[in-house]
Amino acid sequence: MKEDLAKIVTKEKFPLKNESIVDFQNLKESVHAEVVHAKKYCGTQWKRFPLLNEILKGHRSGELTIFTGATGSGKTTFLSEYSLDLCIQGVKTLWGSFEIQNHRLAKMMMSQYSGLNLYKNVELFDYISTQYSKLPLKFMSFHGQETLENVLKTMSNAVVLHDIKHIIIDNLQFMIGTQFPNTMDKFSQQDMIIGAFRRFATNFNCHVTIVIHPRKENSDEYLKISSIFGSAKATQEADNILILQEHKALKEKSSTSFKFVEVCKNRYDGDLGKMIIKFDKDNLCFSTNNKVRHDASQDDILISSLNTDITNLNNNDLMIHNDLNIIKKTKT
Description:
By secondary structure, this protein is of the alpha/beta class.
C-alpha cells in the first residue's frame, strides 16, 4: 500500500509540503490571542440592546446574519436602530434599502438617533441633522428590484473606498427576478444570492445582514428557522439567525405592543435566547428590559416587561439629549 502511494506521489509530482495542510503550531498564536483578548474578539458591543451582548457576545466582522419577521412586524424599524447603535460607536455602515426610500429611512433613523419626534421638534431639525450627518453612514441609491452584480459591485466599492464594516440588505426578495435564466426557480436564485453574500462577507471581512421574508404560515404560531423563505442554504450559510416575534398571549392583555428578538442560531459560541423589546411610536425606538435575562422563561420575560419603560443611552446619546434640552429651554 505504501509503495502504491509512493508511486502516486511520484507520478503526480505532489509537493513535499502542501500549504493547505496545517498543524496546531500554525494555529497556536491565533488561539492564544482569542483566549487572552476574548472581549476584543467578541466584537462591538450594543449599547441600546445590552441583552444581545449576553447572547451573541457582540457584532463581528466577516459574519453573515439573517433577519426575518412577519410582514409589518417592524423588521426595518428595528434593524435601523440596531445598525444605528453600532454606527454611533464607529462601525462604518452601508444601508441597502430596496423597499423603503432612503430619505424616509434617514428620517426614521434621525428620530431614533435623537430620541425625539421630528414632527414635534421641527425647530431642532438643523441641529439634529448636523449631528446625524457626522455618522459613518452611507446609503445605496438602489430602490426596487436590482441585479446581484450591481449590488455586489457597489458593496465592494464601499468597502474599498469607505472601509465599510457593516452592510444591511433589506430585503433579499427584491434581488430575485429577471436577472436569472428562466429555467432557474426562485429557490435556486436565492441560493445563488446567499452564496455570493457569504463569500463577500468572508473575503472582505465585512459583516453582512440580510432581511429575508418568512414563508406564509399560521399567524397564531411563532416563526422558526424553517419559516425562512427558500431552501436550507440561507440558514446553513448564516452565522447568526434573528427572528422578530410578537408575543401572542400578552397581545390581548396589554395595549402596548410587546415583541421579542429571538436568536435562533449563533455560530460564535452557540448561545441562544430571547430579548424582549417595547416599541415607542413617538421616537420610533425599541427599549429593552435589562433586568430580564435571556435564559428566563418566555412568560417571565414578557410579563415582567409590562409597564416597564427603560431607555438605554450611550454617552453620545446623552450628550445629544442634554444639548437638545438646553436648546429647548433657550427657545421657550
